Amino acid sequence: MTTIFIKDTGYIKPGEESGSQYSGATNIVNGGDELPLKGVSIRYQRGVSFDDTPQPGTFEDTRLNFVSINNPVVVISGRIYGKGDMSLTSNTINQISGVSSITDQDGNASKYEVDILFLLDLLCKTRGYKELYYKDGTENENILYGIGETDTYNPTYRHLHVRVKGINITQNATNKMINWHMTCQIEKGEST
User: Fold this and answer.
1) How many CA atoms lie within 13 A of 7 on its CB side?
2) Which residues are 79's β-sheet partners?
3) Structure pTM?
4) Span 172-187, pLDDT tens digits
């Protein structure tokens, strides 16, 4: 997979009942424009909650009682290669692709991948749900197409409505490589 996109919609709930869209730099990431996530891997997982409480004094397997279904979780992992001076305009390895620019921490337009880290962190703090999608000609060959749906807000691409649950960013000092992992919980959305 090459580039997937995440967009902060600014709406509290998916669907027509979502109300007014948030605005402003602290309420909606990148002004509501999509963020390209380059060279990422995606892992999808779902679980079921069972009541498997052991019974003291019994030496047999316990009965599993079905309790509930957990919302699916998607873990997205990416890597930024920090070779060379990240401020050089000729350094295209460290530049984003798929959109013309993103809005950096200071509110300026930027093309540098490292500036996406601030925005990924901000995705945890904004209240609106996010859309996660892939928009290449081979969309029927990836997870997001297989489990995603279209809706009235975004009828163009099959996508997932997600809430960003956490972000983990690590950097290896010897080779300047930055790894990030973002955990998202899938929220039920409106289907068309």
Assistant:
1) 18
2) 179
3) 0.79
4) 777 778 889 999 999 8
